[in-house]
Every structure is written in C-alpha cells, then in structure tokens.
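Here we describe the complex-level prediction in full. Unlike the single-chain runs in Section 2.1, the two entities below were treated as one system.
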Amino acid sequence: MPELRKDPLHERWVIVSLERGRRPSELSSPRRVDPCPFCPGNEHLTPPEIAADREPGSLPNEPGWHVRVFPNKFPALCIEGDLRWRKRDLFDQMEGVGAHEVIVETPHHDLRTSEMPEEQLQRVIRMYRHRVADLYRDPRLQYVLVFKNCGPQAGASLQHPHSQVIATPVVPHEVQEELDSSRRYYQFTGRCLYCDLIEREVERGERLVYRDEHFVAVTAFAARFPFETWIFPRAHRACFAQISEEEVAGLAHVLRTVWERLDWIADRPPYNYLIHTAPRERDCMLERSFHWHLELIPRITRTAGFEWGTGFFINPISPEEAAGLLRGDGGRASR
Amino acid sequence: MPELRKDPLHERWVIVSLERGRRPSELSSPRRVDPCPFCPGNEHLTPPEIAADREPGSLPNEPGWHVRVFPNKFPALCIEGDLRWRKRDLFDQMEGVGAHEVIVETPHHDLRTSEMPEEQLQRVIRMYRHRVADLYRDPRLQYVLVFKNCGPQAGASLQHPHSQVIATPVVPHEVQEELDSSRRYYQFTGRCLYCDLIEREVERGERLVYRDEHFVAVTAFAARFPFETWIFPRAHRACFAQISEEEVAGLAHVLRTVWERLDWIADRPPYNYLIHTAPRERDCMLERSFHWHLELIPRITRTAGFEWGTGFFINPISPEEAAGLLRGDGGRASR
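The structure predicted for the assembly as a whole is:
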C-alpha cells in the first residue's frame, strides 16, 4: 500500500509508493515495454477499462476505441482502503488512498498533440471532463489532477500519447496556494483574480499568445520555464467539469494552435501540461474566486540546486520575448 | 539586467535572466567549453577572483590555488544596482540585484565529492563559511544559498567540480517555510524543531544513515527523491557561518562517508546539495528556533506533470529502505 507523508518542515506531501519501486540502478531508466500496451489489440495488457469513447457496437477491452481509460498498472495511489491519518512524534502520515488512471488519447502510437486532429482532441477533453466529474463523486477524494507527460525528459515512461489522472485525499499545496491567493483577492476587491489577470493581459498584449471568444493563452508573467504558457477560459468557472461543449471545441483549438507554434519554435520539446480545477469541497466564495485553467510547461531547461533550495526559478527567456516567438511576430505586442 | 518577478498566484519568485539566454534550440544542451576555464592555467578565462585558498607566495588569478572563487560569468543576478521594487497592476517586480559566484573546489578536473581527500573538502567548507559571512555584510542581500550541481541531469553545465553561491534580495519561499514552521514550533514548545527532530531520528534509528559527535545524517521522513538525505549539526546554530573548526572537519567526514555509500549504491548518480542557513535579518527567536542544515538530493527520478501541478512528490523507495541501503545493513535499524 502506498503511503502519504507530510514533511515536518514544509507544507509538502510525498507519496511513498513501493509498488512502483525497482532497484536503485533501474530507477533512472524508463521501463522497457514491448509490445506497446496502449496500442489497439493489446488491451489485455492493461487493467480492465473504466471508460472509453468507442465505435458503436465495439466491446470493452477490445479495439474500436478512440479514447480509453483504465487504472494505472503501477498506481501511485490505490482506490481501496481507509485513510487512517495518524501522527507519531513529528511525523504525519496516512494510507495512500486515491485514484491513478491512464487516459490513452488515440489509437495511434506516435502522434504529438500538435499533430492530433481537433476532433480527436475534443474527445480527449470530453474524457477529462468525465473523469473529473466521476472521481469527485467519491467523498474520500479531495482533489483531482489531470496531467500529461510527453517525452522521457518530462517523466513519460511510454511513448504512446496518454494523459493521467491522479485523485488525492488532501488538497495539494500548489493548488491551495492558488485558492488562498484568489480568495484573499476576492475578499479585498470583490472580483476574481483570474478574470482581472486575463483582462490585464489582453489589454497589455505583451504576453498574449492567442485569444478568441472562449480562451486566452498567455506566457506567465513570472514563468518558471521558457515558454511556460497558461490557458484560461474567458467565462468564469471554478471547476473544469463545468466546461461547455462550445468550450471543448475552443480548448481543442487553442491547444492545437499553441502546440503547433511551440513545436516549431522549440523543436518538439518534451513537456508537461496540467489542469488546475477547484477541489471537491467548495463554498460559495470559492466558486466565485477560483477560475480553472491549464498550465503548459515545456521542459527545455533543467532544475538544479538553486531551484530546489529556494523555490526560486531561473528563466533564461523573458515571457514577453517567448510570447512574441509564439505569436510569430518577433515580440511586437499584439492588441 | 536580470529581473526578479513575483507570481501573482503563488508565493513564487522567478529570475528572468537574459544574460544567460541563448536561442531556444540551444537551451537544453550544456554549453560546450574547451579548454576548461576552471582548470589551473586557465584563470584568465574566468572573471577575476574574489577569494582563494592558495599556496603561500602564489599570485591571484594564477595557478597555485586549492580552492578559487570568482563571479559567475553568466550571472543569474548582478551585484550592481538598486532594487527598485515596483508593482504595476497585478505584477510585482524588481531589478535582479544579488550575487552569483562560482567556487572551484579543486584543481583536479575530474573528481567526485566521494573521491576528494577530507582535507580538500575542509578547504571547500571553509570557503563556503567565508563567502556566507562576507556576503551577509551587504545590507541589500537578504539570503545566501550555497549549492552544488553535479552531472548534466542535475543542471551542471561544466564538469570540473564546483559549487555556486547565489545571494538574493528577498528570502526565498522554501526557506521562509522552514523559518515559519520552526518559529511556530518554538513558540508552542519552547524548543528547536530541528533539535527535536534529530533526537527523535537518533532514538528511532530507522532513517539514520550516520551519526557521530558533531553530525547526524538521516533520510528525510517525507523524502521527495530516492535517497534524499539531510545532514544536521548536533550543536544548535542558526547560521552556517558560525560553524566551528571542529565541525568543519566533522562535516567533511560525514559528506565523504555519505557520498561514498551513495555512489556505490546508486552508481554515481547526478546530484544537488544545498545548505539552508538563517537569513541576514534575525531576531532572538530566529536564532533559537532555526538550525542550519545541508540537504542532499540525488537526481535519480524525474519530476513530471503531477509534481509541478501539485507540489506533491512521488518517491519509489521508502526512506527507511534507503537508509538501510546507505548504512549497508539492508534496513535493520541502527541505534
């Protein structure tokens, strides 16, 4: 059983997950898997599916799917069990209860997000919505994170395009910080911090990468990584599961547009993306103050001792220059 | 001029440092430098030295040194200038004032910490002490971090053994969290959290890697990374610059001991280490509640979307198992 532990010196949770463990010398290399368990025809190599977007008439755990979801074979957290939160001396720990799912995004083994038809991206986004809504029905799960690792340097152990979902029994620190700062801002101003940020970025234009009726993409003002880009829905909603059908199409379009540019500029970099949504338990003020969004992190630079020791990051490209390159106008502010 | 920016959604500072910038396609590969600017005889290839531990009679910026310090040629922060902290709309920023130095640890191009004679490690530690004390004389610098990156995967751009020092005009978030948690603990109990942690770890023994009269090394209870190890001085002192001559010898010995074991178990992994010391401005309670320490982070696993999205970490080896391997007794608690 995995275990959740809280650091006595920091607001930091760690999952100690021995089921994933291998010998120390093996930890740094990706698992070798042949044949690919995510390809059609190899469904028996994965745990039984939880959900799928399928051709009419096709059967579960057989080919005929467009998008397929199953539990991670090497889960960081396990769905069975009770939390049993306990503290002994200075040490907080609980059982590693939660969910860890894999969403295979396409039957094709070798497609980047930038190469996926928008229709297929829409199917993937609808599956994200379904999984977030479904996992929030379990009262033990306080937070659901949808994320993607692409490329071994970004932590992907398999090449076949896939996203992951991890649901945790506590609200993660990184998310809690966003909830707290947007709540404080709301209490002070009566407005959503994200809505104000979007308005300011569209007005100033210097970090704007893309905008249309439904979405805005900007490089982050204090980007940790070169080309770090945040995608915001223009309509204020706290939870990603509330995304409308129109927005599903809009998100597919902005994702595909930003990725095409990024792949062109940075030569198909490894990347992570993740969706920050509201936690399970929400009061009225959280609904008004928090605004779901997607963060895209190209993994071009490496983190080192300074970053781990301070929480500071060093970014060698200014967010304004990065936005100019992503817009393709060499840095002139688009308004 | 580099720039410090604060994220409007998180307590997170970023250094945007264009002097370090190269074309996007070049950012991921280490700089190629030939000949090595850190080798004896090539002193003219570095900025003029700030300090050195030298043979009697040898001249600055010439061979004859054991340890040599100079400003980083590609500094993340610059020593000249005023902060000019300003806020416009939602965006906090200031000039990137600070210090960024390189400490070349040995004239030998190709030595790991585990292979360095303890006498040489002592010279390095004395230089750390000198640089921390010296930089804290500048009232603009609020925090000094000494750290080391070893191996390209750990962010080192040059192979020749070297550490770095970065002094920042604000106290980093990661350090502030430690200051806050130890202050709260002190207010509640009247004791130092670190002293209590050391006592508990020595008593329990399951995460103990090494101990002697002056130092204790333990794997962290909530280790983010496999084999993450913390080294604590047993004598309570807030600032690393207060390290005694006896402790210099003790720290050299514990460093060398832990590294030898780590290199053996994990096959000479890339790693970072860093020293957390007290900030420049201290009141009486900070002196009593904070306890300097060294954190060692082997870079065996990779961080991915889940870690960036949550601040959680997934560790595939339990800290108790890691401590057993580092002790060489296969996991039996040593007391």
